[in-house]
Design goal:
The chain is of the alpha/beta class and about 280 residues long. The protein has nine helices and nine strands. The longest helix is centred in the middle third of the chain and has 22 residues. Bound molecules: NADP nicotinamide-adenine-dinucleotide phosphate (NAP). NADP nicotinamide-adenine-dinucleotide phosphate binds next to helix 2, helix 5 and helix 7.
Amino acid sequence: MPGIRKKALMKSPLENKWVLITGASSGFGAAAARAFGVKGAKLLLGARRVDRLKITAAEALKAGAAAVHFHKLDVSRTSSVEAFIAWARKKIGSRKSETRGLHVLINNAGGAHGLDTVAEGKDADWEAMIQTNVLGLLRVTRAALPLMPRNAGASIINIGSVAGHTAYEGGSVYCAAKAGELQITRALRLELLGTGIRVGTVDPGLAETEFSLVRFKGNAARAKKVYEGTNPLTAGDIAEILVWVASRPPHVNIDELIVKPIDQAAIGKVHRRKK
Ligand SMILES: NC(=O)c1ccc[n+]([C@@H]2O[C@H](COP(=O)([O-])OP(=O)(O)OC[C@H]3O[C@@H](n4cnc5c(N)ncnc54)[C@H](OP(=O)(O)O)[C@@H]3O)[C@@H](O)[C@H]2O)c1
C-alpha cells in the first residue's frame, strides 16, 4: 500500500498556518481548535470566558497545534474586537509570507437567546442575537481582512444555520440573524473576487453543544429536551467539516454547506426514538 502510506505522510496544507477562531470556549469553536490543532495549525482563539479558552488551548496543543494563543474577545463590542485583532496582528507578525498571514478566519461566535414569539420578545435577547451573529461577524471580518494574504488559499468561514434558510415560531430574530449571516457571506464573496480569499458558510442543523443551554438561559432540563430521543450532530462533526473546507485546493471555494443529522429532515421535523 505505498499510495496510502505516501498520503498518510503528506503534509497538511494547514500545517503552521494561522487560524483564528471566534467563540472557541465551547461547542463548535472549541472542537474546531482541536481539529485544526491535529493538522499542526497555529491558533488564535477568542471568546468572553477566558478560563474556558485556557482549557481549549491546552487540548489543541495536546492534539498537535504548532502554537496556540488565546485572548478575551466580546464580538458585540467594537473596542474589544479591535483590541483582539491588534493582539492577533502582533502574534502573526508581518503578512509578507504565505505562512505568516492569517490563513483561516472562522466566524463562529454567536447563538440564540430565548424562544419567544415576536409578541413576547425581549429587547435584550434580540440585541444579543444581532450583536453577535450579525454585527460581531462583520466587526471581526472588517478588522481581520488586512491580515489575510491575497492569492494564498486563505479562507473566511462563517457559521450560519439551517435557521438562516427556514423560519420557525419563536425563532424570528435568530432566523433573521442567520439569514443576515448568509447574505453577508454572499456579498463578501462578491467583494473579495480577485483577491484569492475564499468565503463560505457552514450551516448546521441540530447539534448538541451549549447552544440550547444558552438559548434557555441555563435551564439544563429544557436544553436536554431539544435533543431527546435523537442522534444529533456533535461539535466534532462540524469541526471536521471546517477543516475539510479550509483544506481544499486554493482554487476551490465551498460556497454554502448545509449539514443536518439524519434524524432531522427539516426544522421541526425530527425523528425521536421512544424509550
Ligand atoms: N448547536 C447548534 O445546534 C447550532 C446549529 C447551527 C448553528 N449554530 C451556530 O454555531 C455557532 C457556535 O455555537 P455552538 O453550537 O458551538 O454553541 P456554544 O457551545 O454555546 O458556543 C457558542 C460560542 O460563541 C461564543 N460567544 C457567544 N457570544 C459571544 C460574544 N459576545 N463574544 C465572543 N464570543 C461569544 C461563546 O463564548 P463565550 O460565551 O465564552 O463568549 C461560545 O464559545 C453559533 O454561531 C451558533 O449560532 C449552532
